[in-house]
């Protein structure tokens, strides 16, 4: 594959993986928790490096998964103790992220890991960091990591689809019929954590947050069926990745930033033109009601 094709494939995998998981966050009204986890996993990456002295993907995934669960747990504890959910997210987010920055600057400053790299990423370097087994070049390692995480997420969604769906729409009913709501909650948080860290090295936390929230929010405006929402969200992630790459080539701008911008543009158009929830549809409905009353 060509250099550009690898970059578009990597961006598309990020868009599909984040978009699918993000749908459940949108339905659970937990979008900003994704922002918190996407930053606090930096602490998990640093701790994993300090323990293993390696930046291999498996160590980062384990470290990020643990800290992601810790983030969700602390937010839940503060919220159930009477702290408002947004305030709880803010406290946990800033505290754990700041601790990760301190550890990074104090103990891991000389390795290929820094705050700017974690936040912004550098997708243009992806085709050069390849996976080689037995002397055979298998392509960028980021593609293999993202593909593996996407497969894991799809398997988990397939196995627990009913439980995730019911607990997302009606947690009270899910608990009443015996679904382990808290287990499903932390399972979803684990999926968010590994998805975030798998995308760190390629696109950074900022694009991850955009892909976790914007495609799902856009799909939410277009359909009332969950399975269709998942498909639309994944498709929007791919369109944003490919469109963002070509826009970055034309205007010579950041590829990750361009991908996030294209996703935001798609949402803006959908917000206006959505046939059921868009501004135009609501305006037409209001005029129809006024016309009938008059």
TrEMBL record:
SUPFAM superfamilies from the UniProt entry: ABC transporter involved in vitamin B12 uptake, BtuC (SSF81345)
Transmembrane segments: 6-27, 32-51, 57-75, 87-108, 142-161, 173-197, 203-222, 227-247, 253-273
GO cellular component, as recorded: ATP-binding cassette (ABC) transporter complex
Protein location: Cell membrane
Mode of membrane association: Multi-pass membrane protein
Keyword Cell membrane tagged: yes
Record has Magnesium as a keyword: no
Keywords: Cell membrane, Membrane, Transmembrane, Transmembrane helix, Transport
GO biological process: response to zinc ion; transmembrane transport
Main location: membrane
Family the entry assigns: Belongs to the ABC-3 integral membrane protein family.
Protein name: Iron ABC transporter
Organism: Guptibacillus hwajinpoensis
């Amino acid at each position: 594959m060509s250099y550009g094709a690898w970059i578009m494939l990597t961006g598309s995998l990020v868009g599909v993986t984040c978009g699918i998981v993000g749908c459940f966050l949108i339905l659970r009204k937990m979008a900003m928790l994704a922002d918190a986890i996407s930053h606090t996993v930096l602490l998990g990456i640093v701790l994993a490096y300090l323990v293993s002295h390696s930046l291999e993907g498996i160590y980062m995934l384990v470290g990020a998964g643990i800290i992601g669960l810790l983030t969700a747990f602390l937010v839940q504890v503060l919220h159930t103790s009477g702290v408002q959910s947004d305030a709880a997210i803010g406290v946990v987010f800033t505290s754990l992220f700041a601790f990760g920055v301190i550890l990074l600057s104090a103990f891991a400053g000389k390795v290929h890991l820094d705050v700017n790299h974690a936040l912004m990423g550098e997708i243009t370097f992806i085709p050069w960091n390849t996976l080689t087994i037995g002397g055979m070049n298998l392509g960028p390692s980021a593609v293999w990591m993202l593909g593996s995480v996407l497969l894991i997420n799809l398997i988990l969604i397939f196995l627990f689809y009913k439980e995730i769906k019911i607990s997302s729409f009606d947690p009270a009913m899910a608990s009443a019929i015996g679904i382990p709501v808290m287990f499903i909650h932390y399972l979803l948080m684990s999926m968010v954590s590994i998805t975030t860290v798998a995308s760190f090295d390629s696109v950074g936390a900022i694009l991850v947050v955009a892909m976790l929230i914007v495609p799902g929010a856009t799909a939410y405006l277009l359909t009332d069926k969950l399975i269709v929402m998942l498909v639309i969200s994944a498709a929007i992630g791919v369109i944003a990745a490919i469109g963002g790459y070509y826009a970055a080539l034309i205007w010579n701008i950041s590829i990750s930033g361009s991908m996030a911008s294209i996703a935001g543009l798609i949402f803006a158009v959908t917000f206006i033109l959505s046939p059921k929830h868009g501004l135009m549809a609501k305006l037409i409905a209001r005029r129809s009601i006024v016309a009938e009353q008059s």
